[in-house]
Amino acid sequence: MLAWPILHTLSKDKLSVFLFHKVPKVPDPLVPNDFDLASFESMLDRICKNFRVLPVGDAVDCLRKGSIPRRTACITFDDGYPDWQYGVLPALRRRNMHATFYITTGQFDRRPLWHERILAAVRGLPDGVFDLGYAPLQPILLQSLQDRQRLVHRLELELKYLTLHKREELMQRLESLAGVSPASVPVMSPDALRDLHSQGFGVGAHTIDHPILDYCDETQTNHEIGGVKEQLEAMVAGRVEGFAYPNGRPYADFSRLHVDAVKKAGYTHAVTTHWGVAKPETSVFQIPRFTPWAKREWHALYQVGRNLLTDPMLVPENSL
Ligand SMILES: [Zn+2]
């Protein structure tokens, strides 16, 4: 496994935070470009060889003090998936690597993640013309796996930027056409969350129902940001100090109102999905994150190096 000496130079006063999601043992045919476990483990080996991995809270303390050591990185995951327990956690433990998991809690009340519901529904749709009866999504002929992959992509695009109410209405229409129920979608269990926490991994918050915060009113915003903290703290019987903005892109998915809400809810830091690295002057409420997706080692390390040269986009913040 290659160590890149240039990363030592590039990483001065910078924090790299890596972001992952679901890591299945074998790729899902509907999303073939997602990480599978073998690719993920190769990526972990590269990170292990080139970085010193800290818990997010410790790295944030270093950032606040302006003393972030070279080659510092954090590993993070978003959403909450049952297969973490069997693939990701053992892979991390074998390498003695810490990671923080930002969890969406609706799944503990039998409301699976909306994009997992899309996958289950598209798998269940019969061949033929699919028409959701929703004008932005034109009818699509389903004949092949590629047609279904395209439909997953289109549904995620069209259903993401809606209110939770409208998204739910369309999800139920989709599930009815597919003849599937959300109850059939695998979700993370409360015991799996507590097990992850008891193993020493970090738990952060990622809202209750994964809305785009810019599509929430004030009451919903406070519920999604503050309510999830209370729920998770009760479940793990401990403090939850970090928040991950859903979808996570500054301006497109959250604004200064949401950064304020995160501060008021009592979090000590928050993470986005904008690429780049945090520096001592970066707000700890908008720490950027990055997923190196290349499978080949030289290409992945090039992506990591390029990310070290990227400044994050930040929304302006009010001083509270
Ligand atoms: Zn998410």
Explain the layout of strands and helices.
Elements lengths: L4 H6 L4 E6 L16 H14 L1 E2 L2 H10 L6 E8 L8 H7 L5 E4 L10 H11 L3 E3 L9 E3 L2 H16 L3 H15 L11 H9 L3 E4 L12 H19 L5 E3 L11 H9 L4 E3 L25 H12 L12
Parallel strand pairs: 1-3, 2-3, 3-4, 4-7, 8-9
Antiparallel strand pairs: 5-6
Helix pairs in contact: 5-6, 5-7, 9-10
The structure holds zinc ion (ZN).
Describe this structure in words.
The chain is an alpha/beta fold. The protein has two domains: 227 residues, Glycoside hydrolase/deacetylase (TIM Barrel, Alpha-Beta Barrel); 71 residues. Helices cover 40% and strands 11% of the residues. It has eleven helices and nine strands. The strands form three sheets. Strands 1, 2, 3, 4 and 7 form a five-stranded parallel beta sheet that branches. Strands 5-6 form a two-stranded antiparallel ribbon. Helix 5 runs antiparallel to helix 6 and helix 5 runs parallel beside helix 7. The chain is globular, with a radius of gyration of 20 Å. It starts with a helix and ends in a 12-residue tail after the last helix. The structure holds zinc ion. Zinc ion binds next to strand 3. Zinc ion (ZN) binds next to strand 3.
